[in-house]
């Protein structure tokens, strides 16, 4: 699995490799196909993706960003525990370790969603 956007350690990139252990933040834009069951499991495709990112040893945050509404699910690792939070509209997305502090709605600037 390759996230739509990632913060990675460039030193961990190898030619022709799709997986990087040095991923610190993974972000997925949720597509309609992500809501389907992943083959051979009872989980949705997006749940399998999130679980995969959460197993990466250096990953500290996972964002699942909605396409059709200003909303996201944020997973943050604190120690060995992952905490999930649903954020919408004017809620603040704060990931100080990555220099991110903005309203969720700001992620949709200059997109058709911002005009709604």
Verbal overview:
The protein is mostly beta strands. The chain contains one helix and seven strands, in the order ββαβββββ. The protein has one helix spanning 45-54, and strands at 5-8, 23-30, 61-66, 71-78, 81-88, 92-95, 100-103. A hairpin with a 4-residue loop joins β3 (61-66) and β4. The mean pLDDT is 89.
Side by side, the strands of the main sheet go 1-2-3-4-5
Mean pLDDT: 89
Fraction of residues in helix: under 10%
- Based on helices, strands and strand pairing, what is the structural class? mainly beta
Number of strands: 7
Order of helices and strands: EEHEEEEE
- Radius of gyration, Cα only, in angstroms? 15 Å
**What does the main sheet amount to?**
5 strands, mixed
What is the overall number of helices?
1
Globular, elongated, flat, extended or rod-shaped: what is the shape? Answer: globular
Unreliable segments of 5+ consecutive residues: none
- % residues in beta strands: 35-45%
Oligomer: single chain
Distance between the termini: 32 Å
What order do the helices and strands come in, and which of them pair?
Blueprint: E1 5-8, E2 23-30, H1 45-54, E3 61-66, E4 71-78, E5 81-88, E6 92-95, E7 100-103
Task: Give me some keywords for this one.
116 residues, 7 strands
What's this entry about, in short?
The chain has 116 residues and is mainly beta. Helix content is 9%, strand content 36%.
């Amino acid at each position: 699995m390759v996230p739509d956007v990632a913060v990675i350690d460039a030193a961990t990139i190898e030619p022709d490799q799709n997986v990087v252990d040095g991923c610190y933040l993974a972000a997925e834009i949720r597509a309609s196909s992500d809501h389907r069951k992943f083959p051979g499991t009872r989980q949705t495709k997006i749940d399998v993706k999130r679980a995969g990112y959460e197993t990466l040893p250096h990953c500290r945050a996972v964002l699942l960003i909605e396409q059709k509404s200003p909303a996201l699910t944020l997973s943050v690792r604190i120690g060995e525990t992952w905490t999930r939070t649903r954020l919408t509209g004017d809620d603040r997305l704060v990931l100080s370790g990555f220099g991110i502090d903005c309203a969720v709605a700001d992620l949709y600037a200059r997109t058709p969603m911002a005009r709604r």
